[in-house]
Amino acid sequence: MKVLEVENLCKVYEGFALNNVCFSLEEGKIMGFIGRNGAGKTTTLRCIQNLAHPSSGTVRFFGLDFAAHETDIKADIGYASGGAHYYLRKTLKEIVSVTKTFYENWDEDAYRRYMARFALNENKRVMDLSEGMKVKFNLVLALSHKARLLLLDEPTSGLDPVSRDELLEIFLDLAGEGVAILFSTHITSDLEKCADIITYMKQGSIVASKTTEDFINTYRLVHLPESVTPEQEQHLLGVCCSKKGNTGLVLAEDARWFDGAEMTLPDLQDIMGHLEKNKEGESHA
Predict the structure, then answer these.
(1) 98 DSSP assignment
(2) Are 281 and 41 in contact (CB under 8 A)?
(3) Residue 212 CA to its chain's centroid (Å)
(4) Cβ-based neighbours of 86, under 8 Å, separated by 6 or more
(5) Closest by alpha carbon to 195, among 177, 175, 218?
(6) Backbone torsions φ then ψ of 4, nearest 5 degrees
(7) Which of 147, 121, 126 is nearest to 62 (CA)?
(8) 125 burial class (0-12, 13-18, 19+ CB within 10 angstroms)?
(9) What whole-number distance in Å separates Cα of residue 122 and Cα of residue 260?
């Protein structure tokens, strides 16, 4: 079952626009939403929840039109961003006491489990939390009302590697229970551990939305010689420099143009880094 369907979503600002954004997500699947700062990821997440009003397009959750069923749908969605914005002098317990009144399906046992798992003390004030602890608390609220879909904007920002791994384990457990998760992140190594699907956005448009395996297998990373031929240059999607030399990203089908060169399967960071150096407006995914 598709829990989220986005069709031709547009949002126009001065100097920026979402351009006919389309993608979908099925229950029990984890989607990684990637793209550089300013690509439109946060705007997309806000528009699909009507936190920012889209200029046009259709959004459906659980097969229902969001515009017609917004209140009911939001009870089944958990949303969290990388930062927590609460009254600094309030305790976590006070914030929770208000938050749970908005959800008929609030799960007190789940709330207690996640608070213990993240080692959070509900008697602490927000101002006494580290940035990482604020992120964890924001996630606890999103996870504690039996949401069928989690929309997470940079959920692992501010977390140490151990805490990030712990969170990814929770994501995998939830997906195994049928919960769908869409989260944006710049930490692409996290996605390689858990994401079923990669949706890549550039300059307000969706460049690709594929299974993680298919997305990676679309490309090859070529270790370039000191000089390349004009024919080879035409097939390079982007070039990056390092102490080990120059590397270029090519489509797997174009790898034949680089016979004899060292070639490897890229990771997500390789792909994103090279594609962002591509000529403006081009798409090859």
Answers:
(1) H
(2) no
(3) 13
(4) 95, 126
(5) 175
(6) -145, 130
(7) 147
(8) middle
(9) 60
Tokens matching residue 88: 């600094």
CA distance 76 to 130: 29
Helix (H) or strand (E) holding 31: strand 30-34
**What gap in Å lies between CA 199 and CA 32, rounded to an integer?**
6
3-state helix, strand and coil shares in percent for the chain, rounded to the nearest 5:
35, 30, 35
Q: How far is CA 107 from CA 65, 118, 236, in A?
A: 26, 17, 52
According to DSSP, the residues that pair with 152 across neighbouring strands are 80, 183
Partnered with residue 239 across adjacent β-strands are 248
Question: pLDDT digit of tens for each residue in the chain (285 aa)?
Answer: 899 999 999 999 988 999 999 999 999 999 999 999 899 999 999 999 999 999 999 999 999 999 899 988 988 998 887 655 677 889 999 999 999 998 888 999 999 999 998 899 999 998 998 877 888 888 888 889 988 999 998 887 778 888 888 888 889 999 999 999 999 988 899 999 999 999 999 999 999 999 999 999 999 999 998 888 899 999 999 999 877 789 999 999 999 999 888 999 999 999 999 998 765 444 455
Helix (H, G, I), strand (E, B) or coil at 77: strand
The burial of 103, by beta-carbon neighbours within 10 Å (0-12 exposed, 13-18 middle, 19 or more buried), is given as middle
Residue 179 CB partners (closer than 8 Å, separation 6+):
27, 28, 147, 148, 149, 150
Is-contact 73 61, C-beta < 8 A? yes
C-alpha atoms less than 13 angstroms from C-alpha of 141 in its C-beta half-sphere = 26
